[in-house]
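debug: dumping io for the single-chain case to check the tokenizer round-trip. Nothing else runs in this session.
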Amino acid sequence: MNGIRIWMTLLMLLQFAWSSFAGWVISEESVDNYGNKSFQTTFIQQNRIRYESSTSVTILDLNDSTITIVFPTLMVYWKGNPDELNEEMFMAFEVQVQSLIAGLPQSEQPAFQQMYDSIKIKLQRSDTGYWVPPSLHLKKTAENLDVGIYHTTAYALYRDSIIKKEFWVASGLNPYEEVDIQRFISLNNRINPYSRRGIAIQAEEYLSLLNSGIIVKSRVYGGADEVLETSVVDYGKVNIPDDFFLPPANYRKVSLAEAFTLPMIDSELFNSE
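debug: decoded output
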């Protein structure tokens, strides 16, 4: 009898451990207004998020505020904090620009170099702090609809009177329950401040939505009538191994500048055979 009780206790503990550490997996499909499709899978567990596409993997670890970018086709990865990412992105960009300038006719190089130097100075002097447009506001709309099996509430994000994003939220499903939202927002706001991307997640109303449900559909409006529509195609709770949020052990750590030039090196080696 005591043996049965011990086994029952062990099974209950195992079940508790499984449910306590279960993460989320979300698969999404994006389509632009030209019909081009892309896919992304997001894995979320214990303050770690892994974004996986067909060409790269990005891992955010909110526990130590680090970013890992994995390049599977090259078997290399980069890892660092947001400040290091911004610095290396700028350096990698400069390497690419200087390579392009060097390939121009010699008579044209000084003019393009002067143009680039001017842009570089503006970037280096620009305020890279957190930037929230005062005109950014969120509205609940009457566009509620059923998206697949989800009954959703619709919202729209405006800058002044211009709509920038629409999204539909299904309550009761909360993949970000595994995430410290404030850390998530803080890390995102520090990544690549030059581009001013990610302004939506800086709106306080948007933060509360992340805590209350899952965005199952969204439309992002860009310039020249560009529209990117993203939909959740599958989701579920699953226990994710810890090492899934690490780069593969056999991958080599590189700088971003080296990662961006590796495809050219591989191409030259291939063509020389």
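debug: round-trip ok. Confidence is low (pLDDT under 50) at residues 1-20, 127-134, 194-200, 264-273.
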